[in-house]
Design brief:
The chain has about 550 residues and is mostly helical. The chain has 29 helices and two strands.
């Protein structure tokens, strides 16, 4: 076994043969030899030897585990089920073998048999998890059933009854069991019942995720179109945490639904199950203004309320009623936002969503405004003003990113673009000073300048400027020498080299990305798309195999 673990398969086969000469019927030795044969490419011999042992229906743990490993390496999981079916018949009260049998069925997607194995296990050892394995198997049968009607009339109701039995007997112990009950009711579209479960005593068990209970309540209120509750709950949660963006969206959605329905609170009763409801634009405006006032007192203000104000302006503008509610000018609000949060990398992505509130005639003025408050200093009169620290650098980067987004670079002619590239690279090289102590795995603070310069050159190349693409490559390679783990540099290099038909450096760049799991599918195509047409069949097949291996091993986990 040690030889197999160390990858010395030939030695493992020799040692197994020695053992078998002394003890002819040692099952485990035969299986370990079969694993060695499988790993040295002698699949047929390995299979014959394994079947010889399997035919004897072994019940010792070592043989069963070794055979399981072998069948898994052979990609024959269905043989594992046969193995444990035989073991369970011989040792009917073994908890371990029954649970192995259940897992073996899970790997081959035998949901009906999983259900039976789960119940058989529960009868031997009445533990909750085994009972709920059986319930989960019913849910899997309902998901995989071709006939949706069968799913809703047979599998799910049966699963619901099984859980209800445990609820009545007060045997629900774990959070996962409540989650399962909720999932069944949701799939049966019994939203009212699901809501009662979450709000009731069982809902108290939902503790592992932050706000798990509230999120589930919110989902059910939405399904039931109970907008007053949606609004009141999101208002309550925003009072607790004014930075939770999802609840701003729900708050606005529900408030405008109530406005459209002309909803009014019932007289002399509570507004809703969740308390006070906001059902007018005035209330929404006041609520957001209050959140901002509260945040402005904080030493570390949160971004949520300021962005919520912009979101409310957008919604009111869409409804054609912005002027009635003096929320302020979006341009001024975004300017103030930049002054508060411009030194954070997220400032650009925050404002990016709201730039459509600016009229295009204001773009240049807006960028000039931002530059005016960005702390840059020049040593001589004709020199470019540069940032003195990383915060100033980040602010300037945000302005540069917004300029690109608003099309200011796009409007430049060739000469202006080349000047911009020169300036961006100067800023990039200056910014490297701040990252001298960065580890190889960390990105340089100024990397984005280099990236943007490359994109401007790519624009020129696509407009017919042939020399620009070679400059792109030199700048990216320079960037990579300072930031060896910058994935954006690598992905852009891969695309450019492939477009130029130079495949040699691409394989190395791709492997240095260290792509994991699903990434072989999401970015692997950058390689495979060109590898085949450029005649690099080995690299193409290798990349396809990576993706195939991922899908093969994950198929059972996610099905």
């Amino acid at each position: 076994a040690d030889y197999l673990d160390n990858g010395n398969n030939k030695m493992a086969i020799q040692q197994a043969d020695k053992l078998l000469k002394k003890h002819k019927d040692l099952h485990c030795a035969k299986v370990l030899k079969a694993i060695g044969l499988q790993r040295t490419g002698k699949q047929d011999e390995a299979y014959a030897l394994a079947q010889e042992v399997a035919a004897l229906e072994p019940t010792d743990d070592n043989s069963l585990q070794a055979l399981t490993i072998l069948y898994r390496e052979m990609h024959r999981p269905e043989l594992v089920t046969k193995l444990y079916e035989a073991a369970v018949k011989k040792v009917p009260n073994s908890e371990e073998y029954h649970s192995h049998l259940f897992m073996a069925y899970a790997r081959v997607g035998e949901y009906k048999k999983m259900q039976q194995a789960g119940m058989a296990l529960y009868k031997i050892v009445p533990k909750n998890p085994y009972y709920f394995w059986s319930v989960m198997s019913l849910i899997m049968q309902s998901i995989s059933a071709q006939d949706e009607n069968l799913s809703k009339t047979m599998f799910l109701p049966l699963a619901e009854r099984m859980v209800e039995k445990m609820v009545k007997e007060d045997k629900i112990e774990a959070e996962a069991e409540v989650e399962l009950y909720y999932m069944i009711l949701e799939r049966l579209e019994k939203y009212k019942e699901a809501l009662d479960v979450v709000r009731g005593k069982l809902g108290e068990k939902l503790t592992s995720e932050l706000q798990s209970r509230e999120n589930k309540c919110m989902a059910m209120y939405k399904k039931l179109r109970r907008w007053p509750e949606c609004n009141a709950l999101s208002r309550k949660l925003l009072l607790k945490n004014s930075d939770d963006w999802q609840f701003y969206i729900t708050y606005f959605d529900s408030a405008f639904q109530l406005i459209d329905e002309s909803w009014t609170p019932p007289p002399e009763e509570e507004h809703s199950l969740e308390g006070e409801v906001h059902y007018s634009v005035e209330q929404a405006v006041k609520f957001i203004e209050e959140r901002i006032t509260e945040e402005s007192k904080s030493s570390r203000p949160r971004r949520g309320p300021y962005l919520a104000k912009l979101e409310l302006i957008r919604r009111l503008r869409y409804r054609g009623c912005n002027d009635e509610y003096k929320l302020g000018d979006p341009e001024e609000l975004m300017f103030q936002y930049f002054k508060k949060f411009g030194d954070k990398p997220c400032c650009f992505t925050d404002l990016k969503v709201f730039v459509d509130l600016l009229p295009s005639s204001q773009y240049t003025k807006f960028i000039s405004q931002l530059l005016e408050v960005t702390p840059l200093s020049a040593t001589a009169e004709n020199e470019i003003a540069l940032p003195a620290d990383t915060k100033a650098l980040q602010q300037h980067l945000c302005v540069v990113q917004l300029s690109r987004l608003l099309g200011i670079y796009h409007a430049m002619d060739k000469k202006q673009k080349l000047t911009a590239v020169w300036e961006l690279m100067l800023r990039y090289r200056h910014g490297l000073e701040f990252g001298k102590s960065c580890l190889k795995t960390e990105l340089q603070f100024s990397d984005y300048y280099c990236l943007l310069a490359v994109h401007l050159l790519l624009d020129l190349w696509l407009e017919g400027e042939e020399a620009a693409v070679w400059q792109c490559l030199t700048l990216l390679e320079e960037g990579l020498s300072h930031s060896p783990s910058n994935a954006q540099f690598k992905l852009l290099l891969i695309r450019i080299y492939c477009r130029l038909g130079a495949f040699e450096p691409v394989a190395e760049l791709y492997s240095s990305l260290d792509a994991k799991h699903i990434q072989h599918d999401t970015i692997g195509y950058l390689l495979t798309r060109y590898a085949e047409s450029l005649g690099h069949y080995t690299a193409a097949s290798q990349s396809c195999n990576f993706a195939l291996r991922f899908f093969h091993s994950n198929q059972k986990d996610v099905s």
